Amino acid sequence: MPFPSAHTCSKSYRDFPCCHRQWRHPGHCRFLHGYSRSFTFWFQAEILDANGFVVDFSSLRQLEQQLIDQFDHTVLVNGDDPLLDQWQALHAQGALDLRVMDNVGMEASAALVWGWANGLLLGQEGGRACCWRVEARENDKNAACYTATPSWYPSSSLTPRQEPWPAP
Fold first, then answer.
1. Closest by alpha carbon to 143, among 106, 101, 118?
2. DSSP characters over 99-150
3. Per-residue pLDDT of the chain (168 residues; tens, 9 = 90+)
4. The CATH number of the domain where 69 resides is what?
5. Within a domain: 153
6. Is the residue at 137 inside a domain?
7. Nearest to residue 81, comparing CAs of 21, 28, 34, 138?
8. How far lies 29's CA from each of 10, 36, 48, 52, in Å?
């Protein structure tokens, strides 16, 4: 969570149509099914940049491209999916655009893209700003969030309940 002295902002990317399956699920989620995924990123910084921004959204084009490459018109499967050979054969034949992931679930997807955002920000900002939360949404009804402060962020040694200044 952001700290009391942090400025925050958010950026959303919407409508990445893809499909996946949770092959271990005993119900209908084991079948290949599709969603139009969306992601919202929350950023924080204790010090604003020269333009007065937490994050200059135009600097996030690489993150947007990663989202497009991973989730736009793709088929997502777990690396341990028993049908992986068949998915790979269909990919090789041009029938689908396959992405193999550790876990295709929305919770794991939120954590994955949180890592992408923070890797980008660390390189661009040198630790001035970070992504502290991502919401991965599969539709209007269902979403999962990942919330964490990266270890390299200056205030990461504080817990959200601690004040960054001494108590009176």
1. 106
2. EEES--SHHHHHHHHHHHHHHHHHHHHTTSEEEEEEEEESSSS-EEEEE---
3. 555 568 999 999 999 999 999 999 999 999 999 999 999 999 999 999 999 999 999 999 999 999 999 999 999 999 999 999 999 999 999 999 999 999 999 999 999 999 999 999 999 999 999 999 999 999 999 999 999 999 999 865 444 433 343 333
4. 3.30.479.10
5. no
6. yes
7. 21
8. 30, 16, 43, 45
The total domain count for the chain is: 1
Strand order in the sheet with 143-147: 98-101, 74-78, 7-20, 33-45, 129-137, 143-147
- Full residue range of the structural domain in which residue 26 is found: 7-147
Whether residue 35 lies inside any domain: the answer is yes
In a domain, 131, yes or no: yes
Residue 166 neighbours by CB distance under 10 Å: 5
- Residues 79, 100: contact at Cβ < 8 Å? yes
